[in-house]
Amino acid sequence: MVDKKVITLDSDFINQVKKEIRPHWGELGWVTYKRTYARWLDDKNRSENWDETVKRVIEGNINLDPRLNHPTPQIIKELTNEAQQLFKLVYGLSATPSGRNLWISGTDYQKRNGDSLNNCWFIAIRPQKYGDSHISPDYLKKDQRAVSMPFSFTFDQLMKGGGVGFSVVDSNINQIPTVNQEVELSVVIDKNSKSYAPSLEKGAIDLDEWKKEHEKDQDYVYYKLPDTREGWVLANARLIDMHFNATNPENKKKLVLDISNIRPYGAKIHGFGGTASGPMPLVEMFFDINQVLNNRAGKNLTAVDATDICNLIGKTVVAGNVRRSAELALGSSDNQDFIKMKQDQDKEKLYHHRWASNNSVAINSKFKDYDPIADGILHNGEPGVVNLELSRNYGRIVDGYQPGIDNEVEGTNPCGEISLSNGEPCNLFEVFPFIAEKQGWDLKEAFALAARYTKRVTFSHYDWEVSRNAINKNRRIGVSMSGIQDWLLNDLGHRVVIGFKDAEDPATGEKIKKAIYDPKGIKVVDQLYQAVVGADRKYSQELHCNPSIKHTTVKPSGTVAKLAGVSEGMHFHYSGYLIQRIRFQESDPLLPALRACGYHTEPDIYTEHTIVVDFPIKAANADSKNFASAGTVSIAEQFATQAFLQTYWSDNAVSCTVTFQDNESKQIAPLLHQYRHTIKSTSLLPYYGGSLKQAPKQPISKDIYLERKKQITGDVEAFFEAENDDVKGLELVDQSDCASGACPIK
């Protein structure tokens, strides 16, 4: 057997690049990187430097090329050259993989868990088989459909740090059989466990006492949870499946879950990182989910029930030390109970668990009843809308109707930029064209490298059979661009929407304002799209795999955009000048460096043991007469900009959170209707303008910005490195891979 060849980047090459290229750090860039993506190096007793992170990430990716199992010298030469080009691209911050890749790629965890390179997933909530998956309950046959499966998939992916979109549309929920019986649940714990007392407070009972009381009772199922992610998932699966006769082979009505072996609060989690929550959140989740199911004994689960179960899982994962637990629930557009499940009468449930998902409704282009949706958005920021018909039958809108081009699409990831089939993940890489042009890149080459990077990710080993099937068939990739507003304004001299003209809706005859786009803007994004598709076609031939079913997207960005200091995804800067507030744990070793360099810090008024740091930020092109911010650009132009990108760039979808002023709220329903044939998914939020105390973003004047900048007199990176070589840092409290905070990074 021939050992697989491994491509590496040698130190001479990296040292030369460091002399030639300077990373384009944004004003928050290095601080964000150091606290978010720099992994701890035990052998050096410090965290990574940027060149070490990029080396790890690129090597982790390039070695996914399956040809390296039996390589020719030519393949080794070509891939080594490609790795070097990718290193230059990412090191200079002209582009980056997703935050997940920055954190995981090239680690041992990646090798054990191929799923870990993908940010987000989608699953349909209906009975499904586990098949040949790494998690498969032993009481089920491999091909047996079980109600628990999509909930297990959701639980597993959330615990691995991914976000999950899930569909509770009526056609899925109606496939769930009647809940046959109530289950009597007992959670037991040994008194020697360090979690004994706090677990009793959550409803667990003493193991020895339970044994005494049930010495002669054998009418129960007993499961002792191993101290693993899989153990948590399997326990929850058993709990769910016992409520249904078809998946309760012992025909038992009592379940005993023994949590004695679960590591206590604060214990280290090896591999993925972080510290354990202890079993207490899990105990609470078991009882809560059992109650949802018991309440439906003799009846059928509803879309609200299924969403509640997913939200209860998400709440537990957050407590389990994955900082984000991003979920998007997709329901039927005529299911009023689902649409209203977060409104006033359910405040108790909202605060308890329903906050754990963003909720959207599935529509098609014939849908007309946008007024209730607009009212919900106005009062609650939800629901968003997802047009599955467009996703199934269109790539880019300019390429026209292509029946069934993506016919198995059922939903989307939590941020809405990738339409997905059952079990499928999003697979992202973004280029910052504004920065790439500054650094002398041919944009077509940069986007081609991005396409090849994402293609290799599809050759990871995936844990779930349903995912492997979808990925092997679709090979879906999501090459994104970010800093779009900076780039177009710089290259065109103005924004891409150059005006509006009077027109009529072709179906209804209603008067509308049709956007006029800059022809140069259309041409340049079209050329970059063709570069991505061409690179994918060529690489697919080399790898003897299917071409990607779709290729391009616009992700919301967020933390990654902060690295390079560009506008987030397609969004306009929040303001030309602003205070960006970042929250740190009070023990974070970066705080002394920030204070020493003149940054304003103060205690967080909302959360104990947390410090807020003010960062004065200037947007690129802030002084241009054609600059617009989220606080000044109209709702109509934001819709038109999203439509431009969906028409000429993205064959997947475009993530966009449209911001609106109070006086624009009446335009929401008409604009949603106007763009029903163009926009695949969107969401809306009111523009607060930093009116909240210690708001994350507060618009300021240029004079205040300059005054704040004068107060900053030191180099945070230099101060930190001098004082903290042996300090293991903590994470930022409120960073995410997405502008909205929806998607996790780790």
Automatic annotation (TrEMBL):
Keywords: Allosteric enzyme, Cobalamin, Cobalt, Disulfide bond, DNA replication, Oxidoreductase, Redox-active center. GO terms for biological process: DNA replication. Disulfide bonds join 120-426. Its EC number is 1.17.4.2. Pfam families: RNR-II_ins_dom, RNR_Alpha. Its cofactor is adenosylcob(III)alamin. The active site is at residues 415, 417. It catalyses: a 2'-deoxyribonucleoside 5'-triphosphate + [thioredoxin]-disulfide + H2O = a ribonucleoside 5'-triphosphate + [thioredoxin]-dithiol. SUPFAM superfamilies: PFL-like glycyl radical enzymes. InterPro entries: RdRp_reductase_class-2, RNR-II_ins_dom, RNR_alpha_hel, RTP_Rdtase_AdoCbl-dep. It is an enzyme of class 1 (oxidoreductase). Residues 183-293 form the B12-dependent ribonucleotide reductase insertion domain. GO terms for molecular function: cobalamin binding; nucleotide binding; ribonucleoside-diphosphate reductase activity, thioredoxin disulfide as acceptor; ribonucleoside-triphosphate reductase (thioredoxin) activity. Residues 9-107 form the Ribonucleotide reductase alpha-helical domain. Monomer. Belongs to the class II ribonucleoside-triphosphate reductase family. This is Adenosylcobalamin-dependent ribonucleoside-triphosphate reductase. The gene is nrdJ.
